Amino acid sequence: MPATIPILTPKEAPTWCPGCGDYTILGALKSALVELGLEQNEVLICSGIGCGSKTPHFVNTYGFEGLHGRSLPVATGAKLSNNKLTVIAIAGDGDTYGIGGNHFMHTMRRNLDITMIVQNNAIYGLTKGQTSPTSRKGFVSNSTPFGVLEEPVNPITWAIAAGATYVARGFAVDMNHLKELIVEGVRHKGFSLIDVLQPCTTYNKINTAEWYKQRVYKLDQNHNPADKFAAIARGEEWGDRIPIGIFYKENKPTYEDGLPQLATPLVKQDITNVNIEPLLNKYA
Predict the structure, then answer these.
(1) Mean pLDDT throughout 56-61?
(2) Spans of all domains in the chain
(3) Residue 266 has what DSSP assignment?
(4) What confidence tier does 153 reach under pLDDT thresholds 50, 70, 90?
(5) pLDDT at 68
(6) How many C-beta atoms surround the C-beta of residue 186 within 10 A?
(7) Do 74 and 56 touch, CB atoms closer than 8 A?
(8) Cα(21)–Cα(23) distance, integer angstroms
(9) How far apart are CA 11 and CA 261, in angstroms?
(10) Cα angle at 81 between 75 and 86, to 5 degrees?
């Protein structure tokens, strides 16, 4: 029976700023889920805190809105509890690469079968425009009135180096292309990162939709995603030309593959005959 995911939940509708890239990311995500043919009860969307982290409220699947920077620990727990579930984490660039940077790094290293969609607008939008880890050097904001001193993080090369097995970048304005990246990322067995360049119409007046349109181009058949060094080289490209598409893809065992006890998902295992009294007595 086909999924009915594109329908917004009746009592919830987005209240993002006009022109925000979160709208098209939401549309691409829902379209991808429909194309994948997944039932609503087969999908869990986890998020942290931020404008775009309200996404689980707007998709008719299971959802969990957690703490700031903590979307991936929740996603990890859910995946290990029910490894048959399609688990998608979605959060902003500050949530993922800053506050949740430690979780991001180690989830990639473990290669859990989770898809991570990052709404990268190079700013903290919800908390009134502070700089994020992807804000360019010299960016002036409420928190950096004299300009950012640090170099921005590079999510693409970071992900490749840390062990992610599917690394892609999309552009929020190109919804069809983004949908294709999400579909392939969900189908990929392993940790998938989809970093999405998006405008913040309220607080980021530099990295606008028009600014990106003048620079983004799609990786073509001349790029080999299996070549890690070529992927890193393309990932370093930023400025007058910014590539989008699949940078890197590798097939290797996932974290779950190393856990034979997950042959039957934990949530479906019978624990009615398990006696925990000895464990309780140990700490009495």
Answers:
(1) 92
(2) 22-282
(3) G
(4) very high
(5) 87
(6) 24
(7) no
(8) 5
(9) 39
(10) 55
Mean of all residue pLDDT scores within the chain: 92
Q: How confident is the model at residue 11 (pLDDT cuts 50, 70, 90)?
A: low
> With 50 as the cut, is the pLDDT of residue 10 above it?
no
- The model's pLDDT over 213-242, given as tens digits with 9 standing for 90+, comes to 999 999 998 999 999 999 999 999 999 999
User: Which of the listed CATH numbers 3.20.190.10, 3.40.50.970, 3.40.50.12280, 1.10.10.10 matches domain 22-282?
Assistant: 3.40.50.970
Residues 6+ apart with CB under 8 A from 185: 115, 117, 166, 168, 192, 193, 194
Q: Which two tokens stand for residue 233?
A: 């080289």
Task: Count CB neighbours of 200 within 10 A.
Answer: 27
- 3-class state of residue 197 by DSSP: strand
User: Pairing state of beta strands 86-92 and 166-171?
Assistant: unpaired
Angle, alpha carbons 233-239-240 (nearest 5°): 110
| Under 8 Å between Cβ of 128 and 53 | no
